[in-house]
Predict the 3D structure of the following.
Amino acid sequence: MEKLKKIMLPIMSAVVVISTLISSQASAATTTFKDVQANHWAKSAIESAVSKGYFKGYGNGLFKPNASVTRAEFASLISRVAKDMTHPEDAQTDSFKDLKGHWSKAEVDRAVTLGFINTKDYPNGFKPSTPITREEMAKWLSSGLVASSDEYKTAFAETKGTLLPVKESFKPGIAQDKIPYLALAMGTNLMNGFPDGSFGMDKTTTRAESSAILLRLENVLKKEATSFDDLNELRMVGTEKSNIELVSNLTTGNTSIADISGKRKTFRNGSGSLVFHRLIGVNISDWNKKKSIYAPLFVDDLDKSFYKNRNVFPVFSELTIYPKAKDFSISHYSNGVIDMTGGSRIDNGLDAKFGYQILPNLESAKFFAKYKNGIKLWVVNYISLDNPNNQFNMDDGSFAVIKKK
């Protein structure tokens, strides 16, 4: 019996030690902060980002989830997340003169070296304590992706002419050189728009939001650009001027919407003309899982009853109408275009939310009188899935046909 006790004591001691270690590790892995409530939307992301060593809390048990993130902080954060990225031989060691002696210098230099930050964007110094804007954040993240692989570089080039599903695309408009950065950030789900339809380019980002973005970046860096459906769609709209090949069982066959983009169509009644720009489709076959990054832009729950039991595929066209006839009105337009090149009024209120222009409902002559030099707007067509044979014909003989695959 005494011999058995001698054997058991070391075993029990080992169990206690192991249990203590496990308990200690579990406690460290589930770090909590006094100012991050159990129901906080980013609680899991915050704890995960901290446990991975990306973020650090404050010594008094606070995380300050609503505090804004500075340039220095975000540069350091992405530098930590991108720890496995290949480090170029020409490493930057003195990116910005105003970082001399600053705590973030080494990590900012590394973020520059890895391609996240372009020093030319800050000719007057990095100003590390400046809160980073969402536009800056999108540019840094996308630049890092482009530097990480040729496929992201190709995706960047292919989204230069795409449409971003945010209100800034329409009012005040987004400079073309900025579009690819936002496209890569949105297409990979690194960053998303707000409920009001905006991207919030000038807004700053909180520590809580940054925690979620960091974890997404960690995931995106492990994937190919082609693995993201939203990015593929943005790329196709950028190059082909339409997304229908990706979101439906429809095709333009040997033709292409890109073939008619930028082309003019004169109305058959001679009252004016239009120039066609692009065509966006939204697959509504499963209302709760609408295919397309553009669904929130054009389709609202108010449309549900309209589409119910109608075997149609809605397509939304962007075009510019050039009035010519005296007192040009909606009837001149509707009687002047009889094929798919035209379209009907979008009437669900989303134009007000996102700021895009639609056909007028009342006093159309007075409306068009204000735009004698042309007005860019959006219209809708409904393609029958039972007999999808729809054609666009332009003045120069170019055309496109939509049919089943």
User: Anything to note?
Assistant: The longest helix spans residues 2-29. The chain has 16 helices and seven strands. The two ends are 82 Å apart (CA to CA). Confidence is low (pLDDT under 50) at residues 1-30.
